[in-house]
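Feature request disguised as a bug: please show the residue count (85) next to Large ribosomal subunit protein bL12 C-terminal domain-containing protein in the output. Example input:
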Amino acid sequence: MLGVAMLASASDRRSKTLERRLQHLERKTDLLLAHAGIEETEDARMAEIDQLLLQGKKIQAIKVHREVTGSGLAEAKEAVERRMR
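Example output, currently without the count:
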């Protein structure tokens, strides 16, 4: 049992480390794009997500977001909720 807990703890630490590194790289990429004057184009289906939200269809909006971005359920839910604000 102790071995499983240690393995889970090590896996969680690696996951958090990778997440921090990914966020750091994303910030750097954003800075480089801004410095170069390049704007990231938004997928046309994001307008579909906004339309679904206007219709009160949050679950369908989350499904479309996952299709468009390949994100997981929790990440898509957070992103869709940010679009609602």
